[in-house]
Amino acid sequence: MATEGEAGGLVKTAHLFLLSAAWGMQLWVTFIAGFVLFRRVSRHTFGLVQSKLFPFYFYTLLGCSLLNLAIFATYRPRGPLSTRETIQIVLFFLGVLLPATNASWLSRITTKAMFQMQEVEREHGLGEEVGLSAHREEYQRLKEKDAKYRGLRQRFFTFHGLSSLCNLACVLCTGVNLALLALRLDGL
User: Fold this and answer.
1) For residues 31 and 80, what is the distance between their CA atoms, to the nearest angstrom?
2) Tens digit of pLDDT for each residue in 136-162?
3) Cα angle 29, 32, 33; round to 5
4) Tell me, what's the pLDDT at 101?
5) Contacts made by residues 106-109, CB under 8 angstroms, sequence distance 24+
6) Would you give the end-to-end CA distance of the chain in angstroms?
7) What secondary structure does DSSP assign to the chain, as a single string?
């Protein structure tokens, strides 16, 4: 039976479940779903799917991360933080901050720029090709010819890159926290 300040079996299970669910979701969305979609659907369809999937993904990840931070902070032993606990609490906090930044700011700007780019591309008969474009030269010409499109591409790739970095950092934070938690499991 759990003593005061010690997590019971249900809390430990919830903590492990939330951390594992976040990790699995991150791996699937980051390393599998995007690559499969990119190679199987048109560029514009891929963008549309991501514009619908990513807000749900970021907010679900944010919820899992908030609950993990709350469980960790509530049930850790009282007293000064050890080095491991300091690392974990910082990683849990980053696990909240990074998806919150993506959900509330980066993905919205990226999506808006993407849809504006797609409008210009449609006007030039582009965007319905699947995978790596056989029309690269046409995109390059459009970028060179149309200053608005060039600016939208720059904005899109800047914020997409920042969003991707946040996401990868969050994957790393979750993975390290999962590893640190696994190292403390008593007898499997």
Assistant:
1) 38
2) 888 899 999 999 999 999 999 999 999
3) 60
4) 97
5) 106/159, 106/162, 106/163, 106/166, 107/54, 107/55, 107/58, 107/163, 109/155, 109/159
6) 19
7) ---TTS--HHHHHHHHHHHHHHHHHHHIIIIIIHHHHHHHSBHHHHHHHHHHHHHHHHHHHHHHHHHHHHHHHHHSPSSSPPHHHHHHHHHHHHHHHHHHHIIIIIHHHHHHHHHHHHHHHHHTT-S--BSS-TTHHHHHHHHHH-HHHHHHHHHHHHHHHHHHHHHHHHHHHHHHHHHHHHHT----
Give the Cβ contact number of residue 38 at 10 Å.
14
| Average pLDDT across the chain, whole number | 91
Closest CA to 177 of 85, 61, 80, 63: 85
Length of the chain: 188
Only one residue has tokens 């491991």, namely 84
Q: Residue 52 is encoded by which pair of tokens?
A: 């619908």
CB atoms within 10 A of CB 136: 10
Which candidate, 162, 148, 157, 44, places its Cα nearest to that of 101? 162
Asked whether residue 1 carries a pLDDT value surpassing 60, the answer given is: no
Average pLDDT over residues 45-56: 95
